[in-house]
Amino acid sequence: MTVRERPALVAHVGQVPEAGSFVTADAAGAPLLVIRQDDGSVRAVANVCRHRGARVETEPAGRRKMFACPYHRWCYTRTGALRSIPFEDGFAGAGRADLGLVEHPSALTGNLVWVVPDRSAVPSVSVSADIAGAAFVRAVTVETGAPWAEVEASVGAEPLAPGTFVRWADGFAELVSVRPAGPRLARTAIGLWLLAGPDARLEGDIVPGWEQRIARMREVWA
After folding, report:
1. 8 A C-beta contact, residue 78 and residue 63
2. Mean pLDDT across 92-114
3. Residue 28 · residue 180 · CB < 8 Å
4. Structure pTM?
């Protein structure tokens, strides 16, 4: 199995709490938009405009009624369907149905959203009920120039799926997803999600030691 064929953890549903809310992600070089739909479902589409290949959404997270490419303003709905093209006469004969943002097959394991970067299959990942049902607390992505295989080998935690790991402490689960990033896979993205299990005790949004841990990780893998 190549790294592009492995299921990649890209979001927790707590990051997209309402219709139109989104996060962006990079799954083994595949730029993604993970969007909460009007019917409550979650969809993952390529964050790549069908016109000239620019990134449609440049913010890491937010909420939109629609998504507009900053290059030539092609607009897409929350489902990824093409909504409008400026100066549409220049694209006579182009079928809008064929020009939407490319969907990546995705799957939910409890509250966790997974994709397969090369779109070869619907991801299939089995995790325990306590992880699947854990609540979202915080998330951060650290990028580094270190080789992804080296970073992955150093995680030292229980594997959930190839490249994705979990640590439990004081009722909190820390999920760590290591994957190559960018079109040339020359950088490594380390996605971290802090989740609260049923026994976790959270004071506001502060978890002692987690910010310090992220700062140390940035220093080690800078």
Report:
1. no
2. 84
3. yes
4. 0.89
